[in-house]
Amino acid sequence: MTSLVSQLVEKGLIRNDQLIGLAGPSTEITSLPYRRLMEAAGIAPGRFADLVAELHGLPRSDLDTMLAGEPLLGPFSRVFLTESGIYPYRLRSGAQRLAVVDPTQRDVVDAVAMTLGGAVTIEIAGLDEIEIALERAGEAQEATVAGEDEPGPVTGAENVDELRDLASGAPVVRAVEEIFDRAVSLRATDIHIEPTRRDYQVRVRVDGVMRAIVAPRVPHRAIVSRIKILASLNIAEHRLPQDGRTRAKIRGRDYDIRVAVMPTTTGEAVILRLLDRSGKLVDFSQLGLRTRDETALRRQIEMPYGLVVVTGPTGSGKTTTLAASLSILNDQTRKILTVEDPVEYEIPGVSQSQVRTAVGLTFASALRAFLRQDPDVIMVGEVRDTETAKIAIQASLTGHMVMTTLHTNTAAAAITRLIDMGVEPFLIASSLRAVVGQRLVRLLCPDCRRPRRLEAHDFDINPRFTAIGLEPGTMVHEPVGCERCGGTGYRGRRAIFEVLEVNEPIRRLILGGADDQAIETTARAAGMTTMIEDGRARCLDGTTSVDEVFRVAALR
């Protein structure tokens, strides 16, 4: 087939020197996107569409027919359709049409066609015609879209069942549904769809550990394209990272799904985080805190003002601890405001806000606005920058109880982290009441765990027994593996904690610029239990294993 480039050159519509400027060192001139050719040649969109239709032997659509038909925008965002130069619609006869500017972008065209399901006729339209049709189709939806507060494409794509109906059983939709369903059945928190040299693999994170599941027999590109459509991402962009969100109903439960796409040397990797919106709020007494730690934390969060910080890596249960702590304060006598990213637990009686960076609603801007809302308690999902840290400290010093999270390895390290972020030590000493460090450990499967009494030679083989403070003759339990736990030996998770109360000796250390080791030593002298020590107690009662404690917590 003669290329479009050749036709344009033969007709004198574009010069060779223009083509050389368009093509990069690794780009074939004949594979240039049609839109770039049209813009470089300065050809009117209608005439360009005529040339493309003639070259590919495809029907030429017209604007009147497109406007008379029923738009099939469904789960596709207008931004995606505009950037891709695509307009899906249905004629009065029921026939489905896909008007496109560039029929050579097969990934995009095929993915949209598969999503529509059934027979779809591809036709060529001018870019201006597609933009007008999309503008008309979107006018009726604009007011609704502008007023939406929920993330992701909620129109026509709120759950997998609706998507199945929309796609009429297309294989790619069923494949994505299978991945979601399998992940939820395994209690997974994350899904990783990773390309390989030959194919791709699907792994899920269950109880904090990755495990592989069977990948559907559907091309990787189709899976990625489908997920991009659900998350309102640019399906034609393969070079840059993209982040988005969607929602789905999986096994009768509502999920928020955060989507992150990253280009790799073998293709695009997609990571999805599953957030169960149907999850029940954990009661404070069910967090698993030791009696001393529970009493100490409760005492501090019930103070009228101050700062309480929960620290740990991503996925360590910090939000659960904060939400459970708020439940103690959630009565008719207090005004409670939260800003989160995302809102993981819906708490009745609490005013919760979702971060919207695209419109300028950040943690810092929300926190400033909260101070004008007459709050008693403020929860900030995460302190990510100096501005947020300083506003949170000021709020805690002006009569508000402020709760937030940080990413540090230990409770004591949260103090030095705040100082590193530019907060004055005297402000920290005056406002900080407590820091909670935590990790999630896997629970031994109660159906297959095996008791074992430690012998002297065990300590020679595994020095961790000594490091954690165990002695010969101690009874511990080990993982075995059975059908109920999927052969892992573990089922479920719980947190191990350390609760650092800021007393006068620690305040003096903060003011004196002491490091986190000195702060931790003083806190332990006052009775603080470290995460390793809490983990040892969980090993002794058969809740978890020694290896599991050391997997998530470091000896200090």
From TrEMBL:
GO terms for molecular function: ATP binding; ATP hydrolysis activity. It comes from the Bacteria. Keywords: ATP-binding, Nucleotide-binding. SUPFAM superfamilies: EspE N-terminal domain-like, P-loop containing nucleoside triphosphate hydrolases. InterPro entries: P-loop_NTPase, T2SS/T4SS_dom, T2SS_E_N_sf, T2SS_GspE_N. Belongs to the GSP E family. This is Flp pilus assembly complex ATPase component TadA. The gene is tadA.
